[in-house]
Write a structure and sequence with these properties.
3% strand; 10 helices; mainly alpha
Amino acid sequence: MRRLLLYLYLLLLIPPFSNAALSCITDATSIILSEQGTLISGVIIFTVIIIAIAYLLGSFTGNPAFTVFAKDEAYHLGFSIALLISFSVIILFSCSAVDMFFKTTFEKIGAGSSPCYESGENMTATALCFLDGAKSDAQRLSERYIDENIHYMMWSTYTVSLNIPLMNTFSASAGAYKRVIASQYDTTLNMFVFPALLSLRMQELFLGFVSENVIRWLLPIAFLFRIFIPTRQMGNMLIALSIGLYLIVPFMYAFNLSAYEIIGSEECNQFRTAIEDNHFGGCGDQNSFWAVARLIPQAFFLPNLTIAILIAFLTGANKALRVIG
C-alpha cells in the first residue's frame, strides 16, 4: 500500500521531460491526467478497494484463489501506474529513436535538400508538407485536364460547309477527331486524377487530425481502460494504437512522400517511349502521363502499406503489454 501511495504521489509531481526532441510531445503524462485525471484516479481507487476486499476474503476464508487474484491485480495496477508515470519518457525515447532513423534515411535517399525537410523538424510537419505538394500537383492536373477536355470538345463540333446555289449543300466535320482527344483527357481525369486528388485530400485531413488529437483524446481513454480490470486488454490495444498513430504513421508518410518528390525526369527517361504523347507531352511536360503515374502509388498503394505496418506494430506492442503486465 505504501508503494501504491508513492506511485500516486509521483503521478502528481512528475515534471515534463525538458530535453525533448523537437518532434515529440514532452508532457504526455500531464496531458493524460488533465483530460481524464479524475476518472483515472477514481478507477485506481476502485481497483484498490477490489484488491483489498479480495485479499481480506482470501485471508479469512483461506481460499488461495482470492489471494492470488489480489496479488495479480496489485501487480497489474502497479505496472499500469508505473507505465502512466513514465509514459512521457517512453514517448520521447521512442520518438527520438524513430527521428534518428528518419533523418538517417532522408540523408541516404537524397531528400535532405528538400524544402519540406529541415533538421529538427517533426515528422508530421514534413509529411504534411510533402502531402500538400502532391495534392497541389493533382489539383493542377485536374484543372488542366478539364480545360483541355472542354477545349477539344468545343473544337470537335467545327464543321465546314459548301453551298452550291440551286443545287445542294455539302458539310464536313473538320474537327471530329478532336472528340477522341477530349475523351482521352476525360478518361485520365475521371479514372486517375480525380480519385488521386480525393484520396490525397482525405489523407491530409486524417494525418492532421491524428497528429493533433491522438495524445489528447485516445491515450487518456486507453489508460483508463488499462487500469480498469474488465477492459485491460482493450486498453493495451488502444495504447499501442496511440503510439502507432503518433509515431509510425507520420514516419511512413514522410518516407513514402519523399520518394514522390525524388522521382523526377531522370527516372522518366527510362520509360520515355511509353510516356510520350502528342497531346499530353513527354517527360519534360508537367502535365504528362508521368505526372499522373507519380500520384498513383501515394494515392492508392502506399497508404495500404502504411496500414499493414501499423497493424504489425499494433500486434507486437499489444502482445508485449500483455506479457509484461
